[in-house]
Every structure is written in structure tokens, then in C-alpha cells.
Amino acid sequence: MTGPRKIARAAFESVDKLFDRAFTPALNPLYHLGTLGWFFYWIVIVSGIYLYIFFDTGISQAYESLEYITNVQWYAGGVMRSLHRYASDALIIVIMLHLLREFVMDRYRGARWFSWFTGVPLIWLVFACGISGYWMVWDVLAQYIAIASTEWLDSLGIFGQSIARNFLNSETLSGRFFTLMVFIHIAVPLFTLLAMWIHIQRQRDAKVNPPVGLAVGTLGMLLALSFIEPAVSQPPANLDMVPAIINFDWFYLAPYPFLDRLPGLTMWALAGAGTLLLLALPWLPPLRRKAAAVVDLGNCNGCGRCVDDCPFDAVSLQPRTDGTEFSEEAIVSNDLCTSCGICVGACPTSTPFRRTAELVPGIDLPDQGMRALREKTLAIAEKLTGTARIIVYGCEHGPGLEKLETGQIGVIKLPCIAQLPPAFIDFVISRRHAEGVFLTGCSEGNCHYRLGQHWEDQRLAGERDPYLRKRVPTDRVGKYWAGITGSKHLQQELAAFHDRLKVQPPLQQRKPGRPADAATADRAESHE
Amino acid sequence: MSRITQIIGQAIAYSLFAVVVGYFATRPAYTHLAPDKAVIKLSFSHAGAHIEECRRLTQEELNRMPPNMRQPTDCPRARVPLMIEVELDGQLIYRDELPASGLASDGASTAYKVFPVNAGQHHLTVRLRDSRRTDGFDHEKSADITLTPQQNFVIDFRPELGGFLFS
């Protein structure tokens, strides 16, 4: 991660932590920007349907019907109109934050390009929805938007007749134009919904609803705003006059002052270049992708745990191809695989207890496989001294781990913490390779690979297969989800865990019949 | 953090969000045109004369053509560009050659130009050449006009209504 991006990520994480304290990580709105976008979209749709019932298309009727909705029916129509406007504005805020956050967190390159790429056209579509909506009010703001927008379109020179001439003066304006605008204002949001659906297609368990608590709070906030500051129309449009000073919705109209100052074609060039740049970002530069996970059919029984746990739908099941009695086998799509290793952590064959000559699980990362992890664990454990030895497993997207290493604490980095099968924790403790295991990684709720931290938490809590065996004493397993800004707290948490281990009674040999020094035996196995 | 502190924190966060949304939804106001200004808008769509006159084909030429294509005249499609001039208070503020639209230059020429001017009295003259002549103009209109602040004064050209229209 480069310097400026690291600083930006640290800034995001600092704000995250503030929100974590107020909302808890489960309800932190910064972790739910995408689902909040969906939520605002649905508020806009529902309120829009209500407004459409009372809206009348026509040069004077449009304004009059909205005046009726706003002033006479203020308790319902007025609130709906305000919700319609403010939810649309909030949608722009969460879209921009979502875009910026995913960029800063480097979650848009490699196999994840698709979500980024399909999200860029959504920006255009949402702006088209908002701008066409303002147009329909037919007040002075609508007049300004209509003329500025059509002048901009005319600058392309592809329309036979000037569209802006429709708004030359009161005599040239036709009510049919409003019918067209209503159609656009309904069709574009529907198309936007389709684009939103495409946007989440490569996400497993994609969430489209924010947590209930956050949804209730957000809706309450919008309702309160709607009563305190109801959305109202500005004076009616009059094409014989030019609007001079206009109350502006800067969320949607921020580019418009530039339209007043720059030639239309220059603005098209800037907008086009900006869009192309955004579309091309996943390849500027491309992510140096690690090798995708590979399936070893000899060890895969097609149980499907890797399919359930992959956050990016990169693993699927297909009919067996090797003639064995199992009905299915896992298959990895190299294009979709982010090499996070979560599938490896889910595989029941990823256990260091296995007595095979080589530790080869049913699915594994070629560059950072289970065998290497076992060997590394044993090599580090061998060097540790003292009565409270700890092995720290940390994800490479979390805090720097190097400073944690001491004579009693060894550190192993993983692509994602969920690459670690719970069996490894059992292995380390029950075979007395260390007195304790400590897990760390991205800050809570902000897993680089979306679901890894969540899955690992569930595995440790015995809620998700593969479970951490009950024989593992929970007081010998510590964790702290730190993020890159939490190094100091991580050190404190680890030190406290270390102190607690020191006063624990010595570990007992767990497996009867094993040699007195099981650790020596494991090392011997790993070097076979 | 206690539950009460959390609720206060959430209330602050929601309020800040609401303030940002509520404020920037309508403020600050944007000044599109200085309140003491008016606008003269020149806009029309008009086809100039054909570059070449239609020519009546000779009987010999007609005989050489397939029977279903024997039209008596040959009319080249291309049209001349329009020449437009706008003069305000004796000063030329706009002069342009407007090409005919279309790949074969056979469509109408289009003008769309906005001139912000001070409100008040002005003398306005507009001239248009739409024929094959190379000098002078075919249409001209002058008027003393009084523009009120923020007025949208439109110059249109409708030959069927007598040429330039001021409104």
C-alpha cells in the first residue's frame, strides 16, 4: 500500500473507530455504505410512487400539483416529497463515500474489478435520476436545469434540431416535454435498479439491506429533517425571465456552474475523461495477483464448505470427474479468486494433525499453502522460550506485526485471518507448541475480504464449520481486530493476554498414548 | 462506552448528517446571472439556399436514365452556410458563419447564442445572409429595445412570419 493511500486509510480507520464507539461495529454506517445506498434508493422509490399519484404533467399543472402536495397535503405528500429529496441527496453522499472508501482500502483491483467497473455507470444513472426529477417541479431551478442541460446536450451536435429551443420562451414550450420527462424519471431509476443488481453479482451473500437498527435510525433522521426543513418549490418557471439567484442542490448540481463557464464540448471531454479514468482505475496499475486456490481431488470430497465461505463466489461445485464415489467436487474460477485463502480455512482436510506424508488439503493456496503454514508454525514455535509462549496469526491487511515478535511471541502472517483453520489453534495448544494463540487482522467489521473475519469469529465461537474443538481452552485463545491504526492497542491487548497466560497452570498433554514430547514428534513428521 | 454515551454519539452523528443534507440541498444560493443583467438569446433554425440552382435536364439526358428515375430537374442538395451578425448599440457583438447540418450539408443551419447584457435601453440590429450572394445581407432588423433586469429577450428567425422576430 502506497504512502498517500496508507494515510487515507488510516484517516478512514480513525473515523471508523469513532463511529465504532457510538454505533458499535455491527451498526457502524461506514461499514454499510453500500446497503445504505440501497436503503436510500428504496425510500426514493416508495416516496416517488406516492408523489406520482398526485403529480400532474403539464406546463402549469406540474408546479400546481406539487404545491398542492407540499402545502395542502403537507402531513403526507409534503413529507414524502421531502423524503424523496433528502434520500436522493443522502444517496449521493453514500455513493461518493463508498467509492472513495473502496479505493482507499484497495478493494477494487484484481478479481474485484467487476464491482468497481459496474459501479461507475451507476454514478451517471443516479445523477440522471436526480436531475430529471428536479426538472419535473418546473420552478426556476427546473427552468435553469432544463436550459443548461439541453444546451449541454446540444453542444454534442448529434441532434437534428436544438433541444434547448424547446425552452426559448413561453410560446415554444410544449406540455409533451413533461410527459417525456416523467417517462425518463421512471425508466432511468428502473434501469438503475438493474445496474445495481449487476453491481453485486460477484459478491457472495451480498447485503442489500442495512442492519435494522441503522435503517431505523437513518429513516428517523430523514423524517426529522423532512419536518424541520420541508422540501419546497422555488418560484414557478417563467421562460420570459432568466433565473438570477437560485437555491441549488449541490449534491446533484455541483457540475452546473462549470457548464455556465466552460464550453459544452470541454465539459463532455472532462466528464468522459473522468469516467474513463474511473473505469480504468482497477488496472492503473493492475494488482499483482497471487496464484488462485487449487483443488486437490484426492483430498476433496465435495463437501462444499469452501463454496459456502468464499466471499466472491470463486468456488463452486461440479459433478465429479475422477470416478470416485463422491457426487461433486470443488472447482475454482481463477478470474474470481482473490487468493484470500478463506476456502482453505474452511476445508476440513486443512488440519495439521493429519498423519499423511505431506499436508495437502482438498483446496489450497499454491503460494502460501497449509504445509508451509504448518512448517512455519513449528519452526517459530521451536524458537520460542519461556512459560507463556504465544503464536500470533495476523492478516496482512491489518496492523504491522513485526514489532510484536519477542523471544516468547512468534508471528505468522496470512492473506486473511480466515485462512487459519481452527484445527491449527488446537494443534498449537494441545501439542504444546505454545501456551497461547492470538489472532489479529483488519478492524472489526472492515475485513479486506468482506467475510473472513466474520467467518473466523463464528468458527471460534462454534457457530460455523469447521469449529474450534471444545477441548481448546478459550482463555488460551486471544484476538484483537486492530486495523492498521490499532498497533498500539494491539500491543496492549497482546501484553495483557501474555500476562494472563503467565498465571495459567501449565498445559497438560492432551492426547493419551502420544510420546512425552509431542512437539518433537510433530517436528519430525513435518520434515518427513 | 456506556449506552447513554452511545445514544448521544449516534444522535450527534445523525444530526450532523441531517445538517449536511439539509443545508447543501438548497444552499448556498447560486448566482447564475447578476440581478441587474438581462439576456439576449439568439436562436433559430433555418435552411439556406442551395449552393447550385436546379437545372432542367435535356431530353437526351432523360433518355439515358432508367424510366423510373426520369425527374425533369437535377437539384444538388448542398446548401450555403448562413452569415449572421448581431450589433448592439453600434458595436458588433457576434458574427459567425453557420454551416448547413447533415453529412451532405443539406440541412438547416442552427444558431444558439446567449448574450448577457446590462438591463436598460439598447439599439439592436440583426442581419442574416441565406442566399448565394457573397456580399451584403438578405434579412435585417433593427429596433430600440428596453430590457428589464433578468429579461430573456429572444431573437428568432421565421421567414414564414416575415423574418426576424424580437420577443
Short summary:
In chain A, 49% of the residues lie in helices and 7% in strands. Chain A folds into two domains: 32-279, Cytochrome Bc1 Complex, Chain C, CATH 1.20.810.10; 294-526, no CATH class. Chain A has helices spanning 3-23, 33-54, 61-72, 74-104, 113-137, 140-154, 176-199, 212-228, 250-253, 256-261, 264-280, 305-309, 342-346, 370-383, 422-430, 452-460, 487-502, 518-526; strands spanning 245-246, 294-295, 315-319, 328-332, 363-364, 390-395, 409-414, 436-441, 477-481.
Q: What features would you highlight for this structure?
A:
heterodimer; A: 528 residues; alpha/beta; Cytochrome Bc1 Complex, Chain C; 2 domains; four-stranded parallel sheet; two-stranded antiparallel ribbon; 7% strand; elongated; B: 167 residues; alpha+beta; four-stranded mixed sheet; four-stranded antiparallel sheet; 11 strands
Tell me what you see in this structure.
The complex is a heterodimer of chains A (528) and B (167). Chain A is of the alpha/beta class and 528 residues long. Chain A has two domains: 32-279, Cytochrome Bc1 Complex, Chain C (Up-down Bundle); 294-526, no CATH class. Chain A is 49% helix and 7% strand. Chain A has 18 helices and nine strands. In chain A, the strands form three sheets. Chain A has a four-stranded parallel β-sheet with strand order 7-6-8-9, with helices on both faces. In chain A, strand 3 and strand 4 form a beta hairpin. In chain A, helix 3 packs across helix 4, helix 5 (113-137) runs antiparallel to helix 7 and helix 6 (140-154) crosses helix 11. Residues 512-516 of chain A have low confidence and may be disordered. With 167 residues, chain B is an alpha+beta fold. Chain B has two domains: 1-30; 37-166. Helix content of chain B is 17%, strand content 43%. Chain B has helices spanning 3-24, 59-64; strands spanning 30-31, 37-46, 55-56, 73-74, 82-88, 91-98, 109-118, 120-129, 139-147, 152-158, 163-166. Chain B is elongated, with a radius of gyration of 28 Å. Chain B starts with a helix and ends with a strand. At the A-B interface, helix 1, helix 4, helix 6, helix 8 and strand 1 of A face helix 1, strand 1, strand 2 and strand 10 of B.
